[in-house]
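Researcher: We're teaching a course module on how sequence relates to structure. For the next exercise, students receive a sequence and then see the predicted structure as C-alpha cells, so they can try to spot secondary structure elements on their own. Here is the exercise chain.
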Amino acid sequence: MMKLLKARETLLLVLIVVLSIVITSINPNFISFDNLTDLLKSWTVLGIFALGVLLVLISGGFDVSFTAIAQVAQYVVVFWFLQLGLDNIWLAILSALILGALMGLLNGIIIYYFKITAIIVTIATNSLFYGTLYVVTQGDLIYDLPPSLLSLAEIKIFPLQAANGAWYGLSLVTCLWFALAIFLHLFLKHTVLGRSIYAVGGNALSAERVGFNLRRTTLFIYTFVGAISGFASIIQVSIVQTVIPNSIVGSELQVIAAVVLGGASVTGGRGSVAGTLLGVLLFAILSNSLTLLKVSPYYYNVFTGLVILFSVSLNALQILRQKRAQVRVVVEQ
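Model: And here is the predicted structure for the students to work with:
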C-alpha cells in the first residue's frame, strides 16, 4: 500500500482528479461525456506517439525523428493510394507500419553499428526525412482522401445522440490507442524482449554480459517506434481529413514531456505504460482547460517547459533517495 501511494501514477491520478474538479467548478461543460470523448480523440495521435517514445526512454535512448517518420509515411501512403485508386484502411495501416518500420530501422542501424549518440542520429534523420518530403512535395496539401480513411475516425463505440440530432461517443481510434497500450504493457512485463529493454536501459554493459542481445534489442526498439509512428500517421489523417506536410512535425516536446511526466527516466531503466497514459491525459486536460477558460495558448508552451524541468528533477531526486537507502556492506579481506 505504501509503495502504491508513493508511485508516480498515484500522484498523477490525484492531480488529474483535483484538476478536473477545479475546471468543472469553473466550466461545467468540461465533465460532459461529449467533451471528454472529443478530448481523448484529439489526443489519440500524441498518445500513440508517447507509447513508442516510452520504449526508447526506458532503453536509455532518445528519439525526436518519430514525427518526421509519421509525416513521410502518411504522405507517401495516401499519395500512393490515390495514384493506384486503392481504398482499404487495413492496407493503408499495414503500408504505413512497414514504411515507418523501415525508417525506424535505419535509425537503429546507425545508432548500433556506428555507435553514435541516439539524439544526434534522430535529429539528423528528422531533418533528412522531413526535408526530403518537403523538397519533393513542395508543401502541397492533399484534400481528396480515400473514403475508408475518412470514415475511420467517425466510427463511434457506444454512440449517443444529442438533442440537436448529432451523434457522439467514444471514437474507435481512441479504443485502438488503449488496445495498443494494453498490448505494450503485457509485452514489457511478460516477455524476455520486453524485460531486456529495461535491462539495457538500466546498464547496457551489464545486460549484455548476462546474455541480453544488445543488437537485437536496439534494432527492435527503433523499428517498433517507426512502426508506431506510421500507425499514428494514418490515425492522424483520419482525424484531420487532410494531408498537411507540416502538421505533425513540431509536437515532439509535448510527447516527450508527457512520457517523462509519467515517470520515464531520460537516463533509462524506468517507465510504465500506465504512467505514460496518465501523463498524456494530464496534458490533454490542461490543454482543454485553457480553451474552455479562454486562456492564451502561449501559456501552454510555458507549462510544457516547466513540466519537463519538474519531471526530470523529480526523477533525479528519486534516484538519489534510492541510492542513499541502499545498504552498503564492507567485506573484510
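Model: If you want an answer key for the exercise: Residues 40-249 form one domain. The radius of gyration is 21 Å.
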